[in-house]
Amino acid sequence: MVICAGLTSSRQALGQQPISGRGGEPIAAARRTAIDARPFLRQLDASAVRKWMEISSVCTMAEFELFLGPLAEPERKLLDKMASLTAPIVTRVHFDDLRSILKNGQISSYFEVERLGKHLLHTTPALENELYGAFDCVFASVGPPDGSPRYGDVIIRLRDSVRENGWATPFSGMDFLYAVRHKDARKMQQLLEDGKTLSSKRTDPLSLGFDDRLTFSHYVVTEKHWNRALAYQAILVLRNADDSSAGKQVHERFRKMLATDSHEEFWKLFIPAREKDLPPEQEAARVPFGYLEGKFDNRFLLDDVTAIEVPQGKLEEVLAWPMAREYRALIQSVGE
Questions:
Q1: What stretches in the chain show pLDDT beneath 70?
Q2: What superkingdom does the record give (predicted)?
Q3: Going by DSSP bridges, is the β-strand pair 331-333/305-310 parallel, antiparallel, or unpaired?
Q4: Residues 6+ apart with CB under 8 A from 213
Q5: Overall pTM surpassing 0.70 (yes/no)
Q6: Nearest residue to 53 (alpha-carbon basis) of 201, 168, 150
Q7: Exposed e or buried b per residue across 116-129, where buried means at least 16 C-beta atoms within 10 angstroms of its C-beta
């Protein structure tokens, strides 16, 4: 996702209404249409969307199992190992938004922020709302030990139990439209920020329509399968690593993951921290084995948080805020 500073502060000002009140409904509707083009008439509710996601996720895992099989012994070991691990679930926010989050006791979706009457710096593009109902979602990375820095400088670590209300895809909606659908997602987003609408005609290179939502729907993974999905992603990365120096380092990193007994070390090997300006070979050697962007309904309560890590030099400032008093035990400096 990209920061959309041009997003206006109300649904009306965006010139659109949400396709549904629930994240995921647009892609569930696309899958329903795909099985029969005649209208079903009955409205999709949150329960039906959730049941569809669970069915879709089971099918996706079965397809991975079929197309990857038979698995080599190290690959089976990775599946077994990951079944016993807990993937880090981390969200990141901008420091300027932290005061309001502490005051409200929650991390909110775009529409939930609007309901609360707050207008925060937000990283949810209107384009993703058109694709799958993103304005009703809060987001967290599944796998990266410290989350994704591009979403903010404050690291918020979440309890594993939040996964019970989540679903995920292996990329953001913006990345999907660019990398998978080969569209100029930034230009499409800018059109929405300018108050324009996107065409649904397939011949329009800046269109967003049924085919996009249907394709995106095939990537949905529910929480019961997150670790298995990450393992399958890792197996694909391993198999596609060549005999170059970078490829050999990928294989070595895989072996180290299988050997380590450290939860922390495993995930740092699985998704190495990003470093700027690396030579291409080193960049290739540090390719992540997998990634999931988790999507959750409406909000995370701070009861769901295990730690709030603020940038170095900001700890005393945050602890002095009146709204931080209740959460002092959670707040620490990055790297502590």
A1: 1-21, 118-122, 336
A2: Bacteria
A3: parallel
A4: 26, 27, 29, 30, 131, 132
A5: yes
A6: 168
A7: eeeebebbbbbbbb
